[in-house]
């Protein structure tokens, strides 16, 4: 209730400041990669949880508009903030923290599980999209190049693939096999499933937090984005409470 009362008290000021807030992303249906779609969805539901108004604008040049080259990014007045965690921090500095009423231990748990999702599922999504040969040939190359004309549509996907390979090489993910990546995701799903339990609506406490937003973004994307292989989605389907969690968040914030 403390968080709800705080949000109500600050709504007039926040609504004025956020009246022109825009969340920029690549074209979601045609262009966005799995990790970008997941992060955009996570930010969207986080802003809804925080009761902050925004307008979603899909731009084919969103990468080049972003202050960091990463998407999605949020524009509020003259501020530009890219990616999920920095956006959560930006909102927190404005006085809205979804986990503010939780104990220090619970907040530490949120940070730990958010880190697990970002370090495991986001890297896995990048790996599968760009380094799994079948997925790259059948899905990624076509999606990424769909907004570019010849000859950019020929070499820009290859440049991006090299960039992702170098990025994943820094943390060892580029050396993994697809089987190992799926196994790491399974461990992440298992940890999230155990934390959620069978009766809880949210991961921690009785109100949604940034962990719920981030988990929903990535889990829902894995469940719904069409991929040539079913290994990852079938692994997630082993955890019915995570499936039900996604259904609940979707119904609450997007129905």
From TrEMBL:
Gene Ontology CC, one term: SAM complex
Location in the cell: Mitochondrion outer membrane
Gene3D superfamilies per record: 1.20.1050.10
Entry-linked SUPFAM superfamilies: GST C-terminal domain-like
Domain (Mitochondrial outer membrane transport complex Sam37/metaxin N-terminal): residue spans on this chain: 41-159
Main subcellular localisation: mitochondrion
GO biological process terms on file: mitochondrion organization; protein transport
The Metaxin glutathione S-transferase domain, residue ranges: 186-247
Keywords: Membrane, Mitochondrion, Mitochondrion outer membrane, Protein transport, Transport
PANTHER family: METAXIN RELATED, METAXIN-2
UniProt record similarity statement: Belongs to the metaxin family.
Protein name, entry field: Uncharacterized protein
Native source organism of the sequence: Meloidogyne enterolobii (Root-knot nematode worm)
